[in-house]
């Protein structure tokens, strides 16, 4: 009975956290779908010809406008590399695709506070800049060329069909494109495809977060995150945050509930940011890097990405601490007293209806046929 009670408690915690963020997920995916419906993937490679600051900035902007699915971002990046985009700028696009997207910022603001949203975006740009510097210093032409040769072999990874999907409407004024039949159809298809790609990570993230919140004692977290040593904790958090992410198997926005639990249990502010950055270093994605670019480039990406994430998170910790922007209260927002008729419930109902309308249009416009072909 104790085991059953513990499982029910963990699932209840996961469900309450999921209820709290449901409307934000629908809003975030809807915004992402709208942007994808008017931004063509065909032009991205042409816009990333080199590793100049301008190209890196464009890469960040395009990445922020793409799907937040980590697997789709990795697959699309491989496609960009084989089509002639700069390897460094393509990797900047990949980092931005999962760290600078709207849905991530919305969820962070709801669960743990707007400070984490600002830190995630500011630190994301800094991480890309540090990554570019590391590539310039250590990426040899021989390693880059071999990685591209491996990428051109087309070894299957995951989500290639989703990444290649391009239904963007590019003719005419922006509002007309969005409200046209093609624009509405494209928005509905991107919305459902993104949900189909990411829901396993969201579900896994909620379940792990619920289990950790319900089962792991505070004493363990306090010792693990060095909570009793404030200075050491600030330095240790950004170092250990990505390591926790690597073994969690959860990526993209599915990391947010787990990050909220880690914050409530003592990890530093910078540690949360570093943990969120590392969604592109989870073990399944590292294996995809190996398939796409070879063992040596996979190891190079692991080391340089990890270094950039830790360095960016440390800077965020120091700057936000100096500006007194780090929250003093350690709590994650959940429907602690159960589901009640409040603004969260009302928003969930409104956005559930919005999502339902997009799903209906998806089915009525041949979405399932396209999904089967992509699979």
Question: Which features characterize this protein?
Answer:
375 residues, mainly alpha
Estimate what percentage of residues fall within beta strands.
under 5%
Gyration radius, to the nearest Å? 20 Å
Structural class: mainly alpha
How far apart, in Å, are the first and last alpha carbons?
A: 42 Å
Low-confidence stretches: none
Mean model confidence by pLDDT: 86
Describe what this molecule looks like in 3D.
This protein has 375 residues and is mainly α. The protein has one domain (2-374). The chain is built from 18 helices and no strands. The protein has helices spanning 2-38, 53-64, 70-82, 87-99, 102-111, 114-138, 141-151, 160-164, 174-179, 181-215, 218-224, 230-248, 255-264, 269-277, 283-293, 295-322, 343-364, 367-374. Helix 12 packs parallel to helix 14 and helix 12 (230-248) runs antiparallel to helix 16 (295-322). It is globular and about 55 Å long. 49% of the residues are buried.
